[in-house]
Amino acid sequence: MKAAIIGAGIAGIASAIRLAVKGYSVDVFEANDYPGGKLSTFEHTAPDGGVYRFDAGPSLFTMPQLVDDLFRLAGRNPADYFEYVRLEETCRYFWDDGTRLTAWADHNRFAREVEAILGEPGQHLLDHLADSALKYDVTEKLFLQKSLHKLGTWLGRDALRGYLNLPKLGVFGTMNGANERRFQHPKLVQLFNRYATYNGSDPYQTPATLNIIPHLEYNIGAFFPKQGMVSITSSLEKLATDLGIQFHYKARVDAIETTGKQVTGLRVDNQIIPFDLVVSNMDVVNTFRKLLPNARQPERILRQPKSSSGLIFYWGINREFPELDLHNIFFSNDYQAEFNQLFGKNGPASLSNDPTIYLNITSKHKPDDAPPGHENWFILLNAPNNTGQDWDTIIAQARQHVIRKLSHVLGVDVAPLIETESILDPRSIESRTSSSQGALYGNSSNNRFAAFMRHANFSHEFGNLYFVGGSVHPGGGIPLCLLSAKIMSELVAD
Ligand code: FAD
């Protein structure tokens, strides 16, 4: 049996591995000349000839067991392909007024830190993390591990547990509301509101159920792949190749061929190639609009509001900053105003003049990612998804705001330290990965029905067509993309 995967994003590669293990002969068609989609890498050459390496997209790695599972499934030892370490420090937080706080992986140490620096009773933090674990435990099996679009999911024991625990899930309040009730100090509310951005949502709209996200980082852990985030992609691509999967790069799929209620193959470079089964890792909106224009379009799902996007500055910095770590956040002074602007509540969606800055520096853990004495700065600002804004003006203004804010908090003029630069914005995210509107995480989760408004992992119209990746169930981010591949493979008959 021959299977085709459209796209070598992380979910596409995971799907290829799962289908190969099931005995399929698998071909992966990728429009770019590299694998990984958003999870890829590139380099800058410094003026003195040294090299800065950057991970292009994701920087936070959680739930590494989902990557390990793929090696084990194929009968391999994960450590032969891929190594990672658990971080002791989850993130360093900075505010304009000089407050600095480290989120430690050790809960008690983190609790002591918030008590010492913010005067917040440490027990509040411990309670929050315990609540996050409970929410995760109840929702994981129901919402993340199974198809929501099969009746069996709603009749089992896990569903019953979900129904019984519904009041504890926070479905009816917002994340911000729950965090304001939990914490006294506005800075801690802001810190935990930030987790809404992990799937591109707005903490002032998204349901408190998304307070499950800190569980991944603090209870299961935040990790660093020893060879950088791209080694998630490269190690899985290596496994796939070892399993005999064929990768075709610079091979954009132009159409999914169908006859009646079956997919018959793909059109690539004006050639029709027959397949028994097709999995699309291309954004679901573009899969329907571009590859299946004559099929029934599931408009209600395709038209859902999209998650936020990102504006990323990749800077080679010719100095080291000991006060910074791998993950650093510089918070805005008015978080709610920032999100109102991002999601266009009071006008066109745009970036705040005082954006929250996420600064990731992999050379802190992988020194060869920057020349000696230098650092590779990956600066991510939450940005609205692309609706045709004047991005060139927005980017120029944002660059000034970032330099001003970092210079203020770090006490040194950052501008002259930037010796190499490249930029990724919602337009280029859209054109490089076919993400609808350049959204980082598919649909937004800003309403309580969002989980039900993502497309299923199978086609309702064509018996042998499946969907995986950040734009479909269970959602965006590396762990959920990997789970989408698992759900898909469980739906495919052995
Ligand atoms: P994608 O990465 O979207 O790739 C899809 C692939 O399909 C692309 O390679 C594309 O070229 C290919 N394709 C599309 N159409 C066609 C076609 N017609 N023919 C052939 N090929 C096609 N997640 C985290 O877990 N942690 C983070 O810290 C994090 N930070 C992020 C930061 C940024 C800047 C970005 C951009 C994303 C971030 N994410 C993060 C989200 C994460 O990267 C994505 O959810 C995930 O990588 C999406 O994977 P995917 O499998 O859906 O495919």
From TrEMBL:
Record-linked Gene3D superfamilies: FAD/NAD(P)-binding domain
Secretion signal, residue range per the UniProt entry: none
One Gene Ontology molecular-function label: oxidoreductase activity
GO biological process: carotenoid biosynthetic process
Keyword field contains Oxidoreductase: yes
Associated pathway: Carotenoid biosynthesis
Keywords: Carotenoid biosynthesis, Oxidoreductase
InterPro entries hit by this protein: Amino_oxidase (IPR002937), Carotenoid/retinoid_OxRdtase (IPR014105), FAD/NAD-bd_sf (IPR036188), hydcarot_desat_CrtD (IPR054840)
Domain Amine oxidase span(s) in chain numbering: 10-490
Keyword Oxidoreductase: yes
Domain of life of the native organism: Bacteria
NCBIfam families in alphabetical order: crtI_fam, hydcarot_desat_CrtD
Annotated family: Belongs to the carotenoid/retinoid oxidoreductase family.
Protein name in the entry: Phytoene desaturase
Source species of the chain: Fibrella aquatilis
Designated gene of the protein: crtI
